[in-house]
Amino acid sequence: MTKIQVFLTAIFLCLLPPSMLFAQDTGLVDGTGVTAHIVHEQGTWTVTYHFDRPQKAMFFNRYTGGYRERFWTSLSSGVEIRNIGGFDTILLDTPSTTASFDITAYTTINIPDANPFIPFTDGGLTLFTGQFDLLPALDAADVADLQGDLFRWQGKQPTLGVTFTSDEPVIMEGALIDGTAVHVTFGGGTHIYTGLGRIEEGNSFVGVIDSALPEWLRENLDEEVTAIFAEHEKRWGFELEQRATLLIAFDGYGASGYRNSGSAFGNTLMLQIAGDALRNEDADIMDSMRWFFAHEAAHLYQLTAGLEILSGDSTWMMEGSANAMANQIVASLDGNAVNLAETYDRALTECDAYLQDGPLEGAGKRDAELAYYECGDLVAIITASLLPDHNLHGFLKELALDRREGSTGSWQYFSTMHRLGADPDAIISLADIVYKKLSDPRQAYIDALNEARLYPLVSGDGRIVSINIPLE
Ligand SMILES: [Zn+2]
């Protein structure tokens, strides 16, 4: 079975209490430096910006293709949008704290991180709030000096507030919004759905699944997503405090094969799928979707368990354990432990490639972020196997408690393993494959798997053909 995996970084965002108000005098959502008020009415879209100080130039740090220059029209005199070296820039003749635009919901391109708008067949669409993020500049020449390179910019990024009002139903962050949706982000964003699509509600999620999705997929998805959340709930031993939002848009049968792209922001999981392979029921496609939801849902439970935002060097803890949990859940739902050997054979091969130039911890600095997923996955199954109760979920809950005591370095991971009774020598071997540059990463990971009694059976051509991971 070939699995198509979608690797994404979940960006965990602070949620605002629903009672939050924005100051009427400045037009700013509390605590933000830039607020965008978006109104969707009778099919038209407008955005009105408020800045916390008068500005002459503000540029967009997302989507350098110049889409706003083409699709946004200024409604304020003395204000224009011009693409400068890739950055769409709002230019104001005289310094001002407001600017308004008529915008066209731009849905026709695929942008790697998150499309600004994603259409649903029923006429609804999602709006990605991160597209409204702005950075201040002195003037047009100042933006030109960046030569399209964000790293040249020196300044303080304002927190972005977005308010959204629509004459159609709105779903944001697991809830149907009554009135105006308010979202605050610092460098992230979320997908907000508006439209007349049928809203699906489960215990753990609320969502909109495109009505044109092929029937076999649609039927199964509803059930599968419910089953995935139930699996997580059973393993973690608690429910999510807040339901997840699931948004699944169908982009038709036009493309050949199967295509998907997805993102997870906060508790919102967005998936856009397309392709002629979807015409017939396909077990691999189903598995790849299950895997996406199981992985992203793992982050929601990690966060609820108290594992605060972990980024940078220690990402292997979060991504690795999310991968391990997703693999288990997909294998369990399939009732097929054999798939795990294939999954971990691929993980080992990819991990080996990412660790050729340096250790797992800090791999992101070498542009080898995927090591956090693949090697991190192997580290997670080794961890579970070394614990007396073999319980990865229980371990992460204990780790969250220990980190709350104030020790947040990644070494705390190993210290918690020790406290829970894992063998000290095995912990040292595991720490070695996380922190050290390995001369033969593949062999070092095979040795660590053996030490953890996972006993991978390696064939003559170096492939894992079986591994001793019991299905939970
Ligand atoms: Zn992830």
Automatic annotation (TrEMBL):
Residues 1-23 form the signal peptide. Keywords: Signal. It comes from the Bacteria. This is Peptidase M1 membrane alanine aminopeptidase domain-containing protein. It comes from Aquisalinus luteolus.
